[in-house]
Each structure stands twice: as structure tokens, then as C-alpha cells.
């Protein structure tokens, strides 16, 4: 039986069991990721991290989960109450939808019922995950707007621009996989990687997807919507108690979704990694083994998220947008053209296509980075620009000579009168 037929025959109790598993998997993995991030970054920064509650601080996430509901909830007087309370739910719900189409494993038997370790295998599963990750930004934007204060609003607007920019690059990176599999179903994508993983065959696509995933999840060094040094805490500045926890958990579950998507698209999904796949024939790709490999790969991807956060400083906003629009998107387009030529022209070898693609990428990179910016070409530069750094509008710049108020002028006049009188007195004495 095919994957779709097995899933169509699932009884209602098995469907509910899978839903419960996805819910618990998301929450438990998010808690483990929070603990692992605090421990790993503490290790990178030469400090212990959580080590008081339980062995190695393993119970710290549970202690935080118990503590947060009892925190005082403060709602701004200027907030739009309905939208303010609805925004965290809008941010969390789509992340669970994205996990519903991810294949966790192959065919297994659960209480005598043959099924596949996947809730639903849609023909457009790739688009469902992209749509779910995009809808989550509505919760962030509404949270910033409904708070009624300026810093959350700025964080929400930043998040909207960020998701739009990097969603395009992420979608273009996935097109390479679609060209090779001729399918949008995630189960077919995994089955197409029985030999060589797409992460090796389509390395530029995986590279672009990895950068876009960090920008999509608002993680450092692309955490501009939060930006503690600039916006206090960003879009969730006015949130406290359980509403803050929902935003916090939604960010980590979104990390899990994009990690699971990356594993499915580029790292063989639930297939056993090399050289384990060579041992015992196909034994380690049957039964419950595939779920083990899938969860292990997802944890590796989450570790890379944490590693990047503890290593790289935050980007400036103009640098961040330049990376997305002038680097990732053009390279994706050139790579898609190269793959299309490879699929259409049978007389060209893979080596020739790769050489042509490499030359095209080098030319594109030179065009993007070596051609001077228009601001450098024109002689009339904005005063106080400081080179390539963004500047405020002219009406917000500090004048070279501060304007004196009427009180200031009167005080200056009195000081001048006193100084003149003192000088005349000295001349009279002499």
C-alpha cells in the first residue's frame, strides 16, 4: 500500500494519538532546546548556566513553566485588549500546523494497525509549511500594534519586513528540490533521497535555506524584531506572565518546524545517515529506527541555531536587508536557471553545468559587492552620514550650533553686561 492509502485507513483513535504525539513532541523538544541553549551558551561564555534545579539543571524549564503562570500580568492602558490577547495564540497555532505534514518515519505497526509516522501527507505539503511559518508573523505584528507603545510597534514592523524578505529566499531555495523530485509532497521528497542527499547534490539550495531559516525565525544574528539593545525587548515588551511564555515557546517551536523541514528537504529526512545506512542492508531504515534518525538530525539542526547565536553579533538592519535582497535572492535565481538547464539539456554533463553555474555566481557576487553604491558615486553626500551607515532625516540631526532660547539669551546678555562692567571698573582703578 502507498503512503496515502495507509494514512487514509487510519482510525480516529490513531489520528488523535498522532495529534497528541505532535503536540507533546513540540513542547518537550522546545523545553529541551531552551535548557540546551542556556547550557551551551553558558559553556561558550565560560559560565555554568542552569545547574541548581535538578541534575545539570534539567528541571529548570519545568520550574520556569510552573513559575510563569503566577507572575503578575500587566496590560497597558493604551492596548487594544482583544487583539492584545489574541496575538500570542495567532503566533503559536501555525507552528503546530507546520508539524502536521512532516514525515517522522516510514511504515510501522501501532497496536496492530499499519500506518505511517505522519499525520497527513498532502500533495502540497511544502507549501503548507511555508504558509504556516508565514502566518505566524501576523501574531508578532498584531502584538506590536495592539500594545499601543512605540517600541513594540517598531519591532512588529521590523518582523513583517524581515519575514517578507527571507520568505522569498526560502521559497526560491526549495524550488531546486521541487525541480529534482517533481513533487510538493514531503513523503516523495524523502523517498527521492534514498541515494544521495539533496544537501550534497543541491548544496547552494541548502546554504540559502539555512540562512533564510535563521532570518525567518527571528534568531540571532537576525533578531532585529526583538533587538534588546535597541527596542527594549521588541514586539513583546508589554507582555508578561503566560502571554510572554506563549511567544517564547512559539519561537522555539518555529525553530523546530524549520529544522524538521530542512532535514526533510536536504538531509534525507528519516533515512539513516551514512555509513549506518550501509550496515545490515535496509534494516536501519525500517521499523522505528527512522524516527530515531529524524529526531537526531533535528537536534543537530537546533544545535547549529544555538551555536550561531552564541558566535555571531547582531546585524545592522541595512546589512540584514542587503544580505537578503542583493545576495540570497539573486544567487537563488541563478542556481534555479542552472538546474533548469541541467534538467532540460541532456547533452551537457553535470560538470559543465556546475562550471557554468560557478562562473555565473562569481559574476553575480562581483556585481553585488564590487560595484560601488550610488551614495558613494554622487559627490553630494548627506551631512553626518559617517560613510555607509544609515543616517536620520535632516530634521532629526543635531545642529552644529545649538539654538539659544530666550532665557538662554537673557542669561548670556547678563553675563556679558557683568563682564563689561567688571572690565570698566578695572580700567578706572588703574
Automatic annotation (TrEMBL):
<keyword id="KW-0520">NAD</keyword>
<feature type="transmembrane region" description="Helical">
    <location>
        <begin position="353"/>
        <end position="371"/>
    </location>
</feature>
<feature type="transmembrane region" description="Helical">
    <location>
        <begin position="196"/>
        <end position="215"/>
    </location>
</feature>
<feature type="compositionally biased region" description="Basic residues">
    <location>
        <begin position="401"/>
        <end position="412"/>
    </location>
</feature>
<keyword id="KW-1003">Cell membrane</keyword>
<feature type="transmembrane region" description="Helical">
    <location>
        <begin position="124"/>
        <end position="145"/>
    </location>
</feature>
<feature type="transmembrane region" description="Helical">
    <location>
        <begin position="86"/>
        <end position="104"/>
    </location>
</feature>
<keyword id="KW-0472">Membrane</keyword>
<feature type="transmembrane region" description="Helical">
    <location>
        <begin position="166"/>
        <end position="184"/>
    </location>
</feature>
<keyword id="KW-1133">Transmembrane helix</keyword>
<comment type="subunit">
    <text>NDH-1 is composed of 14 different subunits. Subunits NuoA, H, J, K, L, M, N constitute the membrane sector of the complex.</text>
</comment>
<keyword id="KW-0812">Transmembrane</keyword>
<comment type="function">
    <text>NDH-1 shuttles electrons from NADH, via FMN and iron-sulfur (Fe-S) centers, to quinones in the respiratory chain. The immediate electron acceptor for the enzyme in this species is believed to be ubiquinone. Couples the redox reaction to proton translocation (for every two electrons transferred, four hydrogen ions are translocated across the cytoplasmic membrane), and thus conserves the redox energy in a proton gradient. This subunit may bind ubiquinone.</text>
</comment>
<feature type="transmembrane region" description="Helical">
    <location>
        <begin position="245"/>
        <end position="267"/>
    </location>
</feature>
<keyword id="KW-1278">Translocase</keyword>
<dbReference type="Pfam" id="PF00146">
    <property type="entry name" value="NADHdh"/>
</dbReference>
<feature type="compositionally biased region" description="Basic and acidic residues">
    <location>
        <begin position="413"/>
        <end position="430"/>
    </location>
</feature>
<dbReference type="InterPro" id="IPR018086">
    <property type="entry name" value="NADH_UbQ_OxRdtase_su1_CS"/>
</dbReference>
<dbReference type="InterPro" id="IPR001694">
    <property type="entry name" value="NADH_UbQ_OxRdtase_su1/FPO"/>
</dbReference>
<keyword id="KW-0830">Ubiquinone</keyword>
<protein>
    <recommendedName>
        <fullName>NADH-quinone oxidoreductase subunit H</fullName>
        <ecNumber>7.1.1.-</ecNumber>
    </recommendedName>
</protein>
<keyword id="KW-0874">Quinone</keyword>
<feature type="transmembrane region" description="Helical">
    <location>
        <begin position="12"/>
        <end position="35"/>
    </location>
</feature>
<comment type="similarity">
    <text>Belongs to the complex I subunit 1 family.</text>
</comment>
<feature type="transmembrane region" description="Helical">
    <location>
        <begin position="287"/>
        <end position="308"/>
    </location>
</feature>
<feature type="transmembrane region" description="Helical">
    <location>
        <begin position="320"/>
        <end position="341"/>
    </location>
</feature>
<feature type="region of interest" description="Disordered">
    <location>
        <begin position="393"/>
        <end position="430"/>
    </location>
</feature>
